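Table S2 (text version). Query chain:
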Amino acid sequence: MELPLLLALIAIGVPVILHVVTRLKNPRPANLPPGSLGLPLIGQSLGFLRAMRSNTAERWIQDRVDRYGPVSKLSLFGAPTVLVTGPAANKFVFFSDALAMRQPRSVRRILGERNLLELNGADHKRIRGALAEFLKPDMLRLYVSKIDGEVRRHVDENWTGRTTVIVLPLMKRLTFDIITSLLFGLERGPVRDALAGDFEHVVEGVWSVPVDLPFTAFRRSLRASARARRTLDAIIRETKAKLERGEATRSSNLIACLLSLADDRCVPLMSEEEIVDISIGTLIAGHDTSSVLMTFMIRHLANDTETLAAMVQEHDEVVKGKEDGETLTWEDLAKIKFTWRVALEILRVVPPIFGNFKAAIQDTEFGGYTIPKGWQVFWTAGVTHMDAALFPGPSKFDPSRFENNQSSPAPPCSFVAFGGGPRICAGMEFARIETLVTMHHLLRRFQWRLCCKEDTFVRDPMPSPLHGLPIEIEQRARS
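Corresponding structure-token output:
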């Protein structure tokens, strides 16, 4: 037998045997949700991943809901899982003390055991507090002009003078540059370029069957993560040296702040390895979601002339009386309301985060069923966002759903693009700023049309339009 085949059989067979032994030792409790756990280790993972990559994931989830109801059991990424859907389920996931954050093994291996998505309790509160220092209103006001400068430079270098561009990779690079500059103090240059290249591959395998074999997405992501971790480790050591020399302070950037966290005896609260994990999680959370949002805004506007015209008018009004080249301000962004409602409707229709996982830290109940201790709980955004009882005519694009004067707004925990509860996205306002600033410059300088007649996308695990969304662009006549 060839060695690679033997290793593959061992890699698959050993977890299966352990899984069976564990089941024999720990019989299942009664009153489990309906459904099946499928094959050991594999479960429904492959079917789910195929649906994600064929743009049928929402249908795949809805088929389960139609078959089993809003609560069902399955196995995803090597662990028994309970799928829950609907506003009540979202509220349960966001607020229940019986659940704690725990990502699938693939996520923990790639992002690190102490990544931001994994922290709970006092650890999460401490790190969220550190993030809040850099995302509070006073800091966000300062970021507007810096983000404006990054966007102008990006547009000049990557859009101006071109007839075609591929949107998604450009948006990913823009948002990556913004967050690494503002939160990590990483200036333009080869180090930032290398880190950006690695992060393109890190996300590819976070939702995958965690079998470390050659040529798999999981293996590619592990290798990219290792390279990114070495880069971040060097940045952390350099920042630490600057703090010791007095060349940096706690408020210089997020890494300096995390290095400065200490107890009453001045003992650091975090190791450098933990800071690397948190940095990786923050970078992914901070740039991938915003880049997907802006890409799908551009995609939608190519075929929605009415919404496009209203947005262009709004942005033209904002700069009336300004000198050409004058940067946007915090007060300017407060006037750009319709564009943000368009962004929220995009997030409803195509949520960047398909769903997320928690774990039961004790036996608990929901919907009349038992969720055993240690099982994953998986919630999704799409089923709720496309529920006609919550959002009438859900397939219709309608930004007015998010006007403040709605007579019958959707109930709490219906719109969950930013999560909810104590762990609601800390960077929501930051994302609003970079989205509005970016769309301002693109809308006022360009008009575009899609190159591909087939207007589809896949999830891997973030939404990705066909070929990265190539578009033809031309300069817009200034009003």
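Notes on Table S2: The two ends are 72 Å apart (CA to CA). The chain has one domain: 3-475.
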